[in-house]
Design a protein that fits this description.
Blueprint lengths: L15 E4 L2 E4 L2 H9 L5 H15 L4 E3 H11 L18 E4 L2 E4 L2 H8 L6 H17 L4 E3 H16 L1 H13 L6 E6 L6 H12 L4 E3 H11 L28 H26 L4 E5 L17 E8 L3 H14 L5 H6 L1 H18 L3 E3 L3 H20 L5
Parallel strand pairs: 1-3, 4-6, 7-9, 7-10, 8-9, 10-11
Antiparallel strand pairs: 1-2, 4-5
Helix pairs in contact: 1-2, 4-5, 5-6, 6-7, 7-14, 8-14, 9-10
Length: 389
């Protein structure tokens, strides 16, 4: 029985593509990828690759220039195409001094999120950057030149403000002082979810809540020594005596708890400064007037924001979500104490107004994330001149 010799490349068509460097198998997948790299949608690229494959089926060898002509004819009237790279070009390398790393659309898109772009926008810009580099046949690009190309592309496609935010955050990466973002707000306004998403988009690893600080302090301090930290913010007043003469016992109990926990908050800020580490800290115990960002100005860029939910009905929806996600936070407790929570929120907002702390009304989560990112980059630009000049 005669043995079979496999065809070179093992492709369905068996056709070889010839150019100055030699011959290699025609592969439809490579053509699809190459077309997509030049801005063609997957559907159009797949259709065109099928048509080309059908036209060269049965031929042993086809010149690369002929493939390019077939594609140009297929896309005639739609702007034409650069000759598609067959085979797929080598990966693009980003050079920084002696360091060489592969270009990644995913990594670039991640860095663009700091400019307050939506994730789909960020990936589209990253894809456009890759396409531009391939068109220029730049398989190696200096890091600074890449960042300049990114900023120019953002300015051309999305405007000067977006490009400015990108330049600011990129320049800030070389700063000597860390950035510490404080998110204040009453229970249930969505501080922690916002903190986690903002941290993801800024690439910040350290995210802490005052709930964690309070839990540690509960272990260290008995109810006799610090009664309010062993209760929730909205019912801490039950742990205090002699509140008959105060205007609002709920607010008084909340302030007593926050005053104690703020000691731990200040310690966390000082630790982050000592380690020169970016940090996002959220929690009900971060209260304007108890935490003073200006005291840390020499060691860090401290940015203070208050998160609120001004629509009382929105609280119920948020509490329902929290109850489904965390069984230790039963829904009825929050609803039964909604009035107290709203009074605490009013107090925090009054202090925010008094101390000049900007307020984010968390109506839509995605909009709030973008608002916080814009505020962060704008504050850094004003405080340190990052991205200017």
């Amino acid at each position: 029985m005669a043995s079979e010799t496999p065809r070179r490349g093992g492709t369905a068509s068996g056709t070889l593509v010839e150019d100055a460097s030699g011959r290699r198998p025609f592969m439809r997948g490579i053509m699809v990828h190459s077309l997509m790299a030049r801005g063609v949608s997957f559907e159009d690229a797949y259709r065109a690759a099928n048509l080309v494959r059908d036209q060269i089926r049965g031929r042993e060898v086809v010149r690369r220039e002929e493939l390019a002509a077939l594609l140009e004819k297929e896309f005639d009237g739609r702007g034409g195409l650069e000759p598609p790279p067959l085979p797929l070009p080598r990966s693009i390398t980003v050079v920084q001094g002696a360091t060489r790393t592969p270009f990644s659309k995913g990594v670039l898109a991640q860095s663009l999120l700091a400019a307050a772009l939506a994730p789909d926008q960020a990936f589209e810009v990253a894809r456009e950057i890759e396409t531009e580099l391939l068109k220029r046949r730049r398989l190696e690009v200096d890091r600074d030149a890449l960042r300049t190309l990114v900023a120019d592309t953002l300015e051309r496609t999305l405007g000067e403000r977006v490009a400015g935010r990108y330049r600011t955050w990129r320049a800030f990466q070389e700063a000597e002082r860390p950035m510490i973002l404080l998110l204040a707000g009453a229970a249930g306004v969505g501080k922690t979810a916002l903190a986690q998403e903002v941290a993801h988009r800024l690439g910040i690893a350290r995210v802490t809540s005052t709930d964690s600080i309070r839990q540690v302090m509960r272990i260290m301090l008995s109810p006799e020594l610090a009664p309010t930290i062993h209760a929730s913010s909205y019912d801490a007043w039950h742990a205090l005596a002699g509140l008959d003469e105060v205007d609002d016992p709920v607010v008084e109990g909340f302030r007593a708890q926050a005053t104690t926990v703020s000691v731990g908050v200040r310690a966390m800020i000082e630790r982050a400064i000592a380690e020169n580490s970016h940090m996002i800290l959220d929690g009900v115990s971060i209260v304007p007037g108890l935490i003073h960002p200006e005291r840390y100005a020499k060691g860090a860029h401290v940015i203070f924001l208050a998160v609120a939910t001004l629509d009382a009905n929105a609280y119920q929806t948020r509490f329902e979500k929290r109850a489904r996600a965390a069984v230790h936070r039963p829904l009825h407790r929050y609803l039964e104490n909604l009035d107290a929570i709203l009074r605490i929120q009013d107090h925090i907002l009054e202090l925010a107004d008094q101390y000049g702390v900007p307020i984010v009304d968390n109506v839509r989560f995605d909009d709030s994330v973008l608002s916080i990112l814009r505020h962060v980059t704008e504050t850094l630009r004003k405080q340190g001149g990052f991205g200017e000049g």
